[in-house]
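Hi support team,

I've been running sequence recovery on a batch of backbones for a student project. Most finish fine, but this one hangs at about 90% for roughly twenty minutes before it completes. I'm not sure whether the input is malformed or the queue is just slow. I've pasted the structure tokens below so you can try to reproduce it. Let me know if you need the job ID as well.

Thanks,
M.K.
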């Protein structure tokens, strides 16, 4: 293992992976709970656990790590006492962090079970140097995506350190028994793996500031939209709806609104369709007369779901947020079973809370029907809750809390 790691670091430097990063040291601070969350969804999923942990250990500092600094305002709004650190995939960054920032427990959220297994991931170096620093390491809400490595160095990292990565975790909690069984097949210790339930069922969006809306007009909110085929189906369905309810409005929240190229392409499509639109970043506090609102901001989607008549969720993203507000939810076909959101969507579809709409006519009719109905009863969501408390109990049993 040691010789492989030294050789890997050498290859990393030769391929341009070396990079000097400095962090301001604070050796007087007590050991922190350091949390890696690549996306807002993963951060939200473990927020109830963080609250429970903080209630038990209020003096323990909290560090939040992500490769995406544009998420930090949302992180800081939820945890103003936390310190946010922008990180990258370079081993030297991980080494510098754990040399300067005291960490008692290192928590990873959802995806980094194996090297390069997910669309977003955390390199093995972060576990390697966390373990060297003496931190306990936990993976929460684990899931396997079965993604192939993207390049030669990624393949090498998985081949050399995949098993070692599993061995570095002192505690692994996963979303289902299938994931647990697969990890054991891959060599993980069965005694370290637990299935407390999906933590995402425990998250309740905080009271959100009302986003710019449309007075008394019925509004459909489409969240986490990701590609042009989705947009075309969405707008075709909206056209069907407006033949019956011409006063209806549409809010569209594209994935990664910080990517202005994607947002510009969506706005161009709306203009091409003859739909007027406003940008949320320019319309705060206004009552809108346009046909559509494009959420080019972060943190406003929950407030929009709260005020919506019904909701539509983009492919491979969580349906739980609008469901918690009692909204009727539609989805389009094409979801991938390898994503954890697929299992959630399927379960909620079986419960009658989510409807898959294969075409624009069905989509428009479902929205028309939903606008005329009362909010649906989503009390059954509580049946699946409690994973955060069970996870904290596992940490207590390990003597970490």
């Amino acid at each position: 293992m040691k010789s492989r790691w030294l050789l890997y670091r050498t290859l990393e430097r030769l391929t341009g992976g070396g990079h000097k990063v400095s962090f301001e040291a604070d050796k007087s601070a007590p050991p922190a709970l350091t949390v890696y969350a690549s996306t807002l969804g993963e951060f939200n999923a473990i927020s109830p656990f963080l609250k429970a942990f903080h209630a038990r250990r209020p003096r323990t500092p909290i560090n939040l790590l992500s490769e995406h600094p544009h998420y930090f305002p949302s992180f800081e709004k939820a945890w103003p006492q936390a310190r946010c650190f922008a990180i990258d995939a370079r081993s030297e960054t991980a080494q510098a962090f754990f040399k300067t920032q005291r960490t008692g427990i290192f928590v990873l959220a959802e995806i980094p079970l194996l090297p390069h297994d997910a669309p977003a991931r955390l390199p093995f170096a972060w576990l390697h140097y966390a373990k060297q620093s003496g931190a306990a390491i936990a993976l929460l809400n684990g899931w396997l995506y079965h993604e192939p490595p993207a390049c030669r160095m990624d393949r090498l990292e998985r081949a050399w350190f995949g098993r070692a990565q599993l061995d570095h975790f002192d505690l692994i909690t996963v979303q289902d028994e299938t994931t647990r069984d697969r990890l054991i097949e891959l060599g993980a210790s069965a005694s370290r793996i637990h299935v407390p339930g999906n933590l995402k069922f425990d998250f309740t969006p905080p009271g959100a500031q009302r986003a710019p809306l449309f007075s008394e007009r019925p509004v459909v909110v489409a969240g986490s939209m990701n590609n042009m085929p989705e947009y075309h189906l969405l707008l075709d369905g909206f056209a069907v709806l407006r033949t019956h309810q011409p006063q209806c409005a549409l809010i569209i929240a594209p994935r990664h609104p910080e990517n202005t190229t994607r947002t510009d392409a969506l706005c161009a499509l709306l203009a091409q369709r003859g739909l007027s639109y406003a940008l949320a970043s320019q319309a705060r506090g206004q009552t809108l007369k346009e046909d559509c609102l494009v959420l080019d901001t972060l943190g406003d989607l929950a407030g929009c779901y709260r005020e919506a008549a019904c909701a539509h969720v983009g492919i491979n993203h969580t349906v739980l947020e609008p469901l918690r507000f009692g909204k009727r939810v539609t989805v389009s076909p094409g979801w991938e079973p390898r994503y954890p959101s697929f299992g959630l969507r399927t379960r909620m579809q079986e419960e009658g809370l989510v409807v898959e709409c294969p075409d624009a006519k069905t989509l428009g009719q479902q929205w028309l029907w939903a606008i005329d109905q009362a909010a649906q009863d989503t009390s059954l969501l509580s049946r699946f809750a409690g994973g955060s408390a069970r996870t904290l109990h596992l940490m207590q049993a390990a003597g970490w809390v």
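--
Follow-up from support: It reproduced on our side and the slowdown came from queue contention, not your input. The mean pLDDT is 90. No action needed from you.
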